[in-house]
């Protein structure tokens, strides 16, 4: 098949949506299909199996400004531009890897050109959380435009039950919703390195970009303070873009022996994320702590389970869909630093972290399994 991917943002920006688009494109190409990724800024990405194509940034930005700010519709220029692409490339399907205002403009034009279009909503583009003001839909213009255009998609791939609930808000036809979670190369993670940590120490790792409100990194100081006061021997590794900002906090500066702050770990010679060095870092720890207040889908928890870690998370959106309590991880019901700290101490002190099968039930998150499910649904469109 000839497949066109349209992400809202892409590498080198490293977020969940960008990594999923990249990994999925590589896997589809590995399975023998032609995949092109359309970008406003064409970044040089070496050693990849898909092609990147640069869109006309000036044209698209002008049309966006005219429509968004001045209410002047110049979509006929976009239609002319995309029509040339469609004639030359003849794609079987266009797959939006999350959306924003600009990509929704592309959607309208592609449907006018009678193209088959699907979308994977990734979180902020569809979710709306009043508690932390999370989601693009707090922009009324965006929410109205999404409401106007969402029914143009031929199918929606929902990464979680919470995304399905948000689709119900827009009365999107249930028969067009296919649940396909974000996925990882499970066998690769399992086969890289060996678990290597001090069993006499609570070895915690959290992988998250520095986004305190959403990712809950503001709780690290409070939880750690309780662990220190109770003489728990622990280290806490935090990995992610801009996580070095944690080093500016006085508490972490004064207690550096407990913390290992790492910037995002990348290796341009490897095709799939997470890279081997990050997998090895997972395996230097035995407990993964998820502090996020909301996730569309917590892929780092799946990575941690595949790496053999015990995952502990608050009972929040995204996490409570992945974690089966006392089977492949643990759920802490009350979102407070005291509850998390008390849970960690209790499990560590009675050595009960070693009594569950953490690898159970995660093969449904395997990248190849879900890439083939996407392909099946692409074929059904034609």
Tell me what you see in this structure.
The protein contains 15 helices and 13 strands. Helix 1 crosses helix 15 (367-381), helix 3 (75-89) crosses helix 4 and helix 4 (101-112) runs parallel beside helix 5. It has 2 domains: 2-183 and 366-381, Glycogen Phosphorylase B (Rossmann fold); 186-364, Rossmann fold (3-Layer(aba) Sandwich). It is of the alpha/beta class and 382 residues long. Strands 3-2-1-4-5-6-7 form a 7-stranded parallel beta sheet, sandwiched between helices. The chain has a 6-stranded parallel beta sheet with strand order 10-9-8-11-12-13, with helices on both faces. It is 39% helix and 16% strand. The mean pLDDT is 89.
Secondary structure class reads: alpha/beta
Span from first to last CA? 11 Å
Order of helices and strands: EHEEHHEHEHEHEHEHHEHEHEHEHEHH
Q: What summary fits the major beta sheet?
A: 7 strands, parallel
Total helix count? Answer: 15
Number of structurally distinct domains: 2
> How does CATH name the architecture of the largest domain?
3-Layer(aba) Sandwich
The CATH topology name of the largest domain reads Rossmann fold
Sheet with most strands: strand arrangement: 3-2-1-4-5-6-7
Helical proportion, percent range: 25-40%
State the low-pLDDT regions, or none: none
General shape: elongated
Gyration radius over CA: 22 Å
Q: Given this structure, which CATH class of the largest domain is correct?
A: Alpha Beta
Amount of beta strand: 15-25%
The overall pLDDT, averaged over residues, is 89
How many extended strands? 13
In CATH terms, the superfamily of the largest domain is Glycogen Phosphorylase B
């Amino acid at each position: 098949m000839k497949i066109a991917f349209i992400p809202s943002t892409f590498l080198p920006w490293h977020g969940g949506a960008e990594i999923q688009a990249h990994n999925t494109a590589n896997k589809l190409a590995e399975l023998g299909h032609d995949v092109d990724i359309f970008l406003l800024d064409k970044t040089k990405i070496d050693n990849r199996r898909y092609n990147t194509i640069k869109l006309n940034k000036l044209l698209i930005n002008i049309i966006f400004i005219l429509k968004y700010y001045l209410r002047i519709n110049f979509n006929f220029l976009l239609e002319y531009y995309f029509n040339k692409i469609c004639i030359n490339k003849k794609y079987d399907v266009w797959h939006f890897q999350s959306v924003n205002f600009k990509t929704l403009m592309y959607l309208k034009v592609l449907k006018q050109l009678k193209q088959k279009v699907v979308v994977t909503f990734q979180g902020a583009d569809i979710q709306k959380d009043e508690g932390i003001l999370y989601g693009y839909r707090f922009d009324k213009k965006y929410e109205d435009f999404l409401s106007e255009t969402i029914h143009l998609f031929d199918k929606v791939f929902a990464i979680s039950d919470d995304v399905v609930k948000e689709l119900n808000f827009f009365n999107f036809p249930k028969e067009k919703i296919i649940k396909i979670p974000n996925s990882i190369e499970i066998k690769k993670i399992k086969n890289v390195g060996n678990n290597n940590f001090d069993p006499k120490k609570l070895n915690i790792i959290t992988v998250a970009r520095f986004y305190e409100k959403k990712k809950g990194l503001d709780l690290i100081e409070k939880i750690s303070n309780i662990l220190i006061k109770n003489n728990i021997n622990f280290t806490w590794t935090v990995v992610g873009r801009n996580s070095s900002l944690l080093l500016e906090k006085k508490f972490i500066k004064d207690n550096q022996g407990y913390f290992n702050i790492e910037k995002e770990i990348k290796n341009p010679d490897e095709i799939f994320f997470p890279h081997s060095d990050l997998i090895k870092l997972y395996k230097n720890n035995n407990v993964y702590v998820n502090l996020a207040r909301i996730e569309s889908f917590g892929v780092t928890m799946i990575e941690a389970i595949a790496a053999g870690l015990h995952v502990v998370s608050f009972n929040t959106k995204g996490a409570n869909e992945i974690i089966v309590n006392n089977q492949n991880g643990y759920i802490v019901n009350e979102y407070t630093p005291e509850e998390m700290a008390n849970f960690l101490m209790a499990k560590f002190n009675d050595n009960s972290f070693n009594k569950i099968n953490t690898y159970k039930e995660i093969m449904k998150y395997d990248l190849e399994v879900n890439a083939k499910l996407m392909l099946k649904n692409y074929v059904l469109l034609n």
